[in-house]
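Title: Prediction job returns without error message
Component: structure pipeline
Severity: low
Priority: P3
Assignee: unassigned

Description:
Job completed but the reporter wants confirmation the result is attached to the right record. Sequence as submitted:
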Amino acid sequence: MKNNKNKTWKQIFQYVSHYKIRLCLSLICALVTVVLTLYVPILTGRAIDCIIGAGKVDFAEMGKIILQILICVAVTSLAQWGMSICNNHITYHVVNDIRREAFEKIEHLPLSFIDRHATGEIVSKLITDVAQFADGLLMGFTQLFTGVLTIIGTLGFMMFLNPKIALVVVCVTPLSLLVAKFISGRTYHLFLKQSELRAEQTGFIDEMVGNLKTVKAYQHESENMEHFRNINERLEKASLDATFYSSITNPATRFVNNVVYAGVGLTGALSVLSGSLSVGQLSSFLNYANQYTKPFNEISGVLTELQNALACAERVFGLTEEAEELPDAKDAKVLEKCSGKIELNRVSFSYVPHKKLIENLNLSVDPGQHIAIVGPTGCGKTTLINLLMRFYDVNEGAVCVDDIDLRNCTRHSLRRNYGMVLQETWLKAGSIKENISFGKPEATMAEVVEAAKKAHADGFIRRLPEGYDTVIGEDGGMLSQGQKQLLCIARIMLCHPPMLILDEATSSIDTRTELKIQDAFGKLMKGRTSFIVAHRLSTIKEADRILVMKDGNIIEQGNHQELLKQNGFYAALYQSQFAI
C-alpha cells in the first residue's frame, strides 16, 4: 500500500512539475503572505505598548504602526489573490492533462479492456475521480504551503521574542502531528473503497438507464432495485466510515491546539508578572499561538482530503498505465485501395486462454467474392469478423489481405478499406448529416443525400422536423430501430469501401424495405469482397460461398445449392427455417 502511495505521489509531482513557473510564483506569494501575516502581531503588540496608562497614549507612534498594519494587510491580500490564481491554474491544468491523457489512453486501449470493464466504471474514473482529485489537490496547494510556512515562521518569531515560551510550544507540537498522522493514515483505504463502490454504482446506473426498455420488458425492476440497494448500502457504509474517521482529525487537533494556547497564556502571564515580558509582547505571543495552531487544523483537513485525492488519483493512474494496444510496426505498410484478397492460414484464437474457440482455421477468399457466414450462436461468426478487422490479433497463424499479414499493415489503413454494418446500430449525438458522413466528414450535401437515397433513408429523413439537420441523441432519439439501421447503411453507401462486412445488417428492417436494401447491397457489393453474417438463410442464397461454422470451425462450405445437396448441418438449418 505504501509503495502504491509513493508511486502515486511521484506521478502527481511529474504532472505538477510541468508548471514550475506558476509553482514558484505561488510559493513566493505564500511566503509574502506568511511573513506579513506574522509581522502584524508584532505591530499589534507595539501598538498596545503605546498605551502606557490613563492619559498616557503615544498617538503619533500608534498612528504610524496602524498605517504599517494597513499596508501589510493590503499587500497580504494581493499576495493571497496571486497565490489563489496560481494554484487554480496549476490544479486545473493538471486535471486537464490527466483527463486528456486518460481519454487518449482509452482511444489506444485494446477492445479486450473495454469488453472486461463496465462503461460507467470508466466514466466514473474520468469524471468523478478526477474531480475529487482536483478538490484535494487545490486544497493542498492553497493551504499546505501556507500552513507549513506559517508554522515555521511562527516558531521563528516566537523564538526571537522569548525562547522559553517558544520551547513550550515546540514540546507540545509533536502530539498534534502524531494525532493527525494516526487518523489520516487510516482514512486512505476507506476513501479508496468509497471510490471503488462509487464507480460500481455509476456503472450499474449507466447500464440500467441505457437498457431501461429491456429492464421493463422483462419486469426486472425489483431485482435491479435490490441490486442497487445493495450497492448503495455498501457505499453508504464506506462513505460514513471514511467521513467519520476523517472528521475526528479536526476536533482532535483542536484539543491539542487549545492545550498549546493555554500553555502559552499561562507561561506568558507569569513572564509578564516577573517583568521579562510586556503586555504587548504577551498579546503578540497569544496571536502567534493562534496562528501557530490554526495551520495544524488546516493541514489535518488537507491530509484527509489528500487521502481521498490520492485514492482517486491511484484509480485514474491505474487506467493510464493499462497496457495499450500493440502499436503498428515501424515498417507497417499502408493499405491503399486493396483488391480484397483475404487468406486465413492456420488461425487459432480464444478470448480466454483456457477456453478454446477457433482452432487451425483456414480460409481463402478471392477478390470480389461474397462470403456468407452462418451457424448457431457462439460458433465464432462475430469472432471471425473481429479478426478480419483486427480488433483482436490471432494467437497463432496469420490473417492476410492482399498477401500482407494484418500485423504488418497499419490498423487505420486496414479499417479504411472495410465498410461495416452491424446488427447493433451506433449513432452519435449530432445531426442526421453528421451521422451519415461520420466515415467521410468532407462529403458534400449532395453526396450525403445520394447515399441516403441508396439506403432508402431519404424519405423518412425529409419528414423529420429539420430534415438532414435534425439533431438526435446518441440513442437515436425518436428514430425507430429500423430507421437507425438505415442511417448506418447510408453511412457505408457514402464511403464505398473495397470490402464489406454486413453483420445482420437488415435484421431490424421490414420485409418490403429489406428487399430494396438487398437490391442496393447487391449493387454496392458488385466487385467488392463481402462478408455477410446472417441468421435468415433466405438472404444469402446468392452468396458465392457459404461458410457453416460450429464450435469455432468451418464444418461445411459451398454455395446454397451445393450445401443443400450435401444434406448436412446447413440443409437441416435451412429446412428448420422453412418447415411447415
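Comment from assignee: result matches the submitted record. The chain has a mean pLDDT of 80.
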